[in-house]
Amino acid sequence: MDRFELISRLKQSSSEKIVLLVLDGLGGLPRNNKTELETARIPNLDKLAETSETGMMVPILHGITPGSGPGHLSLFGYDPLRYIIGRGILSALGVKFPVRQGDLAARVNFATIDEHGNVTDRRAGRIKDETNRKMCELLREIEIDGVQFFIETEKEHRAALIFRGKEFSDQLSETDPQRTGVAPLSVRPLDDREATQATASMLNDFLQKVKEKLKAEHPANMILLRGWALHTAIPTFEEIFGLNACAIAGYPMYRGLASLVGMDVVEVTSGVEPQFEKLAELWGKYDFYFVHVKYTDSAGEDGNFERKVSVIEEVDKNIGKILDLKPDVLAITADHSTPAEYKAHSWHPVPLLLKSRWSRHSHGIRFGETDLSRGTLGIINSLDLMPLVMAHSGRLAKFGA
Amino acid sequence: MDRFELISRLKQSSSEKIVLLVLDGLGGLPRNNKTELETARIPNLDKLAETSETGMMVPILHGITPGSGPGHLSLFGYDPLRYIIGRGILSALGVKFPVRQGDLAARVNFATIDEHGNVTDRRAGRIKDETNRKMCELLREIEIDGVQFFIETEKEHRAALIFRGKEFSDQLSETDPQRTGVAPLSVRPLDDREATQATASMLNDFLQKVKEKLKAEHPANMILLRGWALHTAIPTFEEIFGLNACAIAGYPMYRGLASLVGMDVVEVTSGVEPQFEKLAELWGKYDFYFVHVKYTDSAGEDGNFERKVSVIEEVDKNIGKILDLKPDVLAITADHSTPAEYKAHSWHPVPLLLKSRWSRHSHGIRFGETDLSRGTLGIINSLDLMPLVMAHSGRLAKFGA
């Protein structure tokens, strides 16, 4: 019996409310012997930790650095080694495109090429959204035999591209050469299957038409394609856990991920305060609230230790807005670490605090990486979080007599 | 290679003696910041912990609350997600019925129905064991074509019912309506297989005959059936671990579980002192002694924090009776948590202490949940206990050259 079977057999209903607060990239590395989280003054979180279950979570496997997709899927209880969501699908979901089973998606960068066809700017000077929309309009005039396609503006030079109507493959090479001075690459099939060969050939024809269509434009006179992904439907969060869930997330990727598992994605301004206030506004309407704070990760990616510390302090200062709602279960954690010292996602385990009226207490544990690894839960896998959250909210019946 | 294959390949003989002391439902939740175990004065266990390996164990998976069956199977080294033992089989084992592969078993409640056939008491006024035995005698007069059946008194209104002789299915609905004022339910097949349809139909005929047979009786004039379970033989404890084992347990369920894995089940009066004395009496006759203390769990189920504390203190006071025997390996742990605050089995990890001459020491660790989660073993799965116990008793050879 696998985890999903076990949970769907044991799950039961409850009116208890769950908040999952994800501080993206929260986990850090020490500078002057203390991580970002250990440096931050967070009296409220430290106090909360004392009466909560605490621990650290390994997002995928030890040593594996998760992208945002696998990191969140694991938090949502989906084995990220079983449910592989390609970047292209995430982009499509991010622009609210209603992806269907069998769709093939890719990320688009509008780019500039010179008269020899060589890339001079991989981002077409970060064109305005308005220009992007105009280019998409133009491209929509292209026709492909037996295939429908959709191209949707994301932001600046980025768009999402979706093909529908044939049996596709996503075992394809990308066309972004990753440097300037050379021509965009053609799409190469990465395996021998007929569908792969046919898809590559269809795409190369399509790219030829794109080049023609954009010939007279500037600076966005070509597109580069990355992140090929075929969409396979996955069971929804509600099907698996019986939870009516919403996502309070400002960024397209996380909105896309939440929508992928069937959460309601609400309109909200990105930021700790507006997002926490949106939570209060929606309180009572859902069983499960996924609140995603992006700025811990952005600061980490930028290598800005101090800014990451101050985002964490801002969360601490505002945490009362969540506690005042008296959620039955509150989990505070991350999808992965983004240590400012490392300036990128990393494989290190992430902090976890889990508070309910059934949580054991973590005497003498502060909310920081070193302490948390000695917490009541020790070091678990992120996949364990959803079963724990279900149990703490009274939603899992006893297994066996 | 799975765990059992690995162990049976590496196992070797030894004369060392192992005691597994299970304090049922030992794990707790804090009241005034301390769990039952942390509240109890247990100088002997605390002292023992200092020179033992210590840790916490997750019985099944994080968040999953085990019934007694899966909880014990896991302690005995059997993956409870692979070996599923139904309640009906446990009942049959509890009355010492020699269950065979292919038998179908259910739990029986004698009940009272009125002249319209509606249930007025789901427990028939908790009839005396004597009355129960008389009713069973009566029911044994029923005949079913091609099928043998056995009904055995358990206690008060409870009995065990076993069918033998055809290919049965246990994918069946229960007949207990779980409330009064309505008729007992009929048995519905829960899948489309022929065996399931045939079993349901045989059982409904049987229930019709039961109703006829008990028509003139009162208050036990009907039976309600729950916990359908088909018995699949599982490898014995001795086959897997090469251990000649006995169970010193007073309660039917645990005696049944021990017997299921092939342990000798000895006669004993329930209680810390008599059970520990029985251990001393049997000392030397077996390799492995499973001693099961029930009252920690009962106190937890009753929500009686103080009584649970005092059972734990009673164990501490008597632990010398075990230590005096100088077992080569002593493991003290639980099958699951039953926090008095929760009044039921829970999913929380359980305490573990493992003492042998090869155990590492747990400096500064007291025998309580918060401390133990920082012990030398950290937080492991209950399935890891048997391999550890085997290793500590010199029974596992090196793996590979």
Structure description:
The structure is a homodimer of 401-residue chains. Chain A is built from 14 helices and 13 strands. Chain A has helices at 3-10, 36-39, 43-50, 68-75, 87-94, 129-139, 194-214, 237-241, 252-260, 272-282, 295-301, 305-323, 369-372, 385-392, and strands at residues 18-23, 53-58, 104-113, 119-121, 148-155, 158-164, 222-230, 245-249, 264-265, 288-293, 329-333, 350-355, 378-381. The radius of gyration of chain A is 23 Å and the shape is globular. The model of chain A has no long low-confidence stretch (mean pLDDT 96). Chain A binds chain B through residues 1, 3, 6, 10, 358, 360-363, 374-380, 384, 386-392, 396-401, and chain B through 29-30, 33, 35, 56, 60-71, 80-82, 84-87, 90, 227, 339, 341-342, 344-349, 369-370, 373-374, 378-379.
SSE layout:
The structure is a homodimer of 401-residue chains.
Chain A: H1 3-10, E1 18-23, H2 36-39, H3 43-50, E2 53-58, H4 68-75, H5 87-94, E3 104-113, E4 119-121, H6 129-139, E5 148-155, E6 158-164, H7 194-214, E7 222-230, H8 237-241, E8 245-249, H9 252-260, E9 264-265, H10 272-282, E10 288-293, H11 295-301, H12 305-323, E11 329-333, E12 350-355, H13 369-372, E13 378-381, H14 385-392
Parallel strand pairs in A: 1-10, 1-11, 2-13, 8-9, 8-10
Antiparallel strand pairs in A: 2-12, 3-4, 3-6, 3-7, 5-6, 11-12
Low-confidence stretches of chain A: none
Count every helix of chain A, treating DSSP H or I runs of 4 or more residues as helices.
14
Greatest chain-chain contact: A-B, 30 and 41 residues
Q: What's the main sheet of chain A like?
A: 8 strands, mixed
Residue share in helices of chain A? 25-40%
Class by alpha and beta content of chain A:
alpha/beta
Oligomer: homodimer
Helix and strand run of chain A: HEHHEHHEEHEEHEHEHEHEHHEEHEH
Q: Nearest-angstrom radius of gyration of chain A?
A: 23 Å
Q: Tell me, rounded to a whole number, the average pLDDT of chain A.
A: 96
Query: What share of residues are in beta strands of chain A?
Result: 15-25%
What best-fitting shape of chain A do the alpha-carbon axes yield? globular
Q: For the largest beta sheet of chain A, what order do the strands appear in spatially? A: 9-8-10-1-11-12-2-13
Number of E-state strands of chain A: 13
The first-to-last residue Cα distance of chain A is: 17 Å
